[in-house]
Specification:
Elements (H helix, E strand, L loop, with lengths): L19 E18 L2 E16 L3 H4 E11 L2 E10 L5 E8 L2 E6 L5 E7 L2 E2 L12 E6 L3 E13 L4 E12 L2 E13 L1
Antiparallel strand pairs: 1-2, 3-4, 3-12, 4-5, 5-6, 7-8, 7-9, 9-10, 10-11, 11-12
Protein name: AsqO/PenF-like C-terminal domain-containing protein
Organism: Aspergillus turcosus
InterPro entries: AsqO/PenF-like_C (IPR057722)
Amino acid sequence: VANPHTPCGDGRLRLGGSSVGWASLVPDAEVSVDVVAAGERVQFTGFGYHDKNWSDAPFAAAVRAWYWGRGRVGPYSVVWFDFLPVGEEEVVSGYVAVGREVVVSGCEEGVVSVRPTRNGTVAAYPPVLGAVPDGFRVVYRMGMEVDVTLGAMVAGDGEHYLRWTGTMSAEVEGKVYEGVGVFEQFVM
């Protein structure tokens, strides 16, 4: 559904000046599953995503914290990344597409703002160990405001790394769209 992208939309793979790299190879796709499990055939369709991140240094030495999220909300495919490298300033990446038309793809300051929420209000930033949000407030400079409500935790240790499914509500030019996604937090 959406074209691949790199953090800044220009082919650079590193996040800021850090040793951490990231590429979103499939930011949004229509997927289908057809498997046989325990003798029973299971089929379903849904939304898909694939990315890759890496570091040429020990992860804990490179990453202080990050938030990442992706999903589909109305006609929009959205991906964001908010990263605090050890000893450096905040680095962000924002991506919005409608089908294969890229609306936003950049990493310049202010392209996207990602902040955790707790009980409907913005929570402490930068994140600290043990501070678990129940949502995120994501604001794209192009005029999209996204409120994320976290659902089930589907991966992680509940402390350093957490991954959730959840829902999104986005407002763009006065219209409200609903959607779903996957979201994560690392705090080292």
